[in-house]
Amino acid sequence: MTAKNLYAYTLQPVNYEISEAEQRQAQLAIWRSTNKISTKSWIIMAVIAVLSIIGIVLLKNYSTIFCWVALVAVVAYILVRKFGLEWYVKRKMNEFPVQEIKGIRLGIQPHGIVMRQQMGAQQGVGAIGWKDIYEWYDTPDFMLVNFKVKGQQGAYVLPKRLNSKNFSFNTIRKHLIESVGPANKI
């Protein structure tokens, strides 16, 4: 490494404090990624809609009521799935408190993400190795890293505001791509 290159690892850990709003935003983004309407469902709805429109055009009198009901059912399903479930999930998320995260400092090292926390007179140190991370997401606002250590699952929501020379997201991405693979889509 030459003097022109920046040192890619943390010399001084950065404060890891994440607000309730940032945690809620990450939870909602993850939920949205799992609430996609499948291709099979779109095909079924398209067939029902086309058959309903054909039925409305070709059938006469009261027989078209079944076609109108099917068409309204398709539209109602899309609206409930797109807007109704999200409203419900937001309401349910607000019922449960988020964990306050304060007093933690994070750093990046060649072996993984290092966490330091003051516990009374002592300082606790923990590390999440790159091999312990099994999936990660990269969004415009945050990076989510899911890991499993000694049978315990955990996650870091890393807001993009933490990106600095002491905590380089480029270094994190490089290690995650090498050890886990490309980021999952949200």
From TrEMBL:
The chain crosses the membrane at residues 42-59, 65-84. This is YcxB family protein. It comes from the Bacteria. Keywords: Membrane, Transmembrane, Transmembrane helix.
